[in-house]
Amino acid sequence: QVQLVESGGGLVQPGGSLRLSCAASGRIFRFYSMGWYRQAPGKQRELVAGIGSGGSTNYADSVKGRFTISRDNVKNTLWLQMNSLEPEDTAVYYCNSRNPLTEADYWGQGTQVTVSS
């Protein structure tokens, strides 16, 4: 079982930055692929950025060049650095981990990001 706890959300003005963190439990964190998803009101949850166990990354087109995902397998932590934030980035952001053998998904409770002037 993996437990995920997000932090770092908040209110920021357009053009500003935030850094989200996700603390994961479990000694096998390093074997899991990780990702950040977001869900805006009235919309489906979407993948923002993903990072494999080996460090390969992928991003939604809407955040490429603005967001950076990273992980530390010693600290069992996942981050999402968000720069040049736009009102369209407003959503609840969720940390996700996936067991590579069972493909079971684990989710954090979510953290609210609001971009507004």
SSE map:
Blueprint: E1 4-7, E2 10-12, E3 18-24, E4 33-39, E5 46-51, E6 57-59, E7 67-72, E8 77-82, E9 91-98, E10 105-107, E11 111-115
Parallel strand pairs: 2-11
Antiparallel strand pairs: 1-3, 3-8, 4-5, 4-9, 5-6, 7-8, 9-10, 9-11
Describe what this molecule looks like in 3D.
The chain is an all-beta fold. 0% of the residues lie in helices and 50% in strands. The chain is built from no helices and 11 strands. Strands 2, 4, 5, 6, 9, 10 and 11 form a 7-stranded mixed β-sheet that branches. A 4-stranded antiparallel β-sheet has the order 1-3-8-7, with no helix packed on it. It is globular, with a radius of gyration of 14 Å. The termini are far apart.
Keywords for this entry:
single chain; 117 residues; mainly beta; 7-stranded mixed beta sheet; 4-stranded antiparallel beta sheet; globular
End-to-end CA span: 40 Å
Helix content: under 10%
* Separate helix tally: 0
Strand content: over 45%
Q: How would the global form be characterised?
A: globular
Mean pLDDT: 95
Query: Could you list the spans in which at least 5 consecutive residues all have pLDDT below 50?
Result: none
What kind of oligomer do you see?
Answer: single chain
The count of DSSP E runs of length 2 or more, i.e. the number of strands, is 11
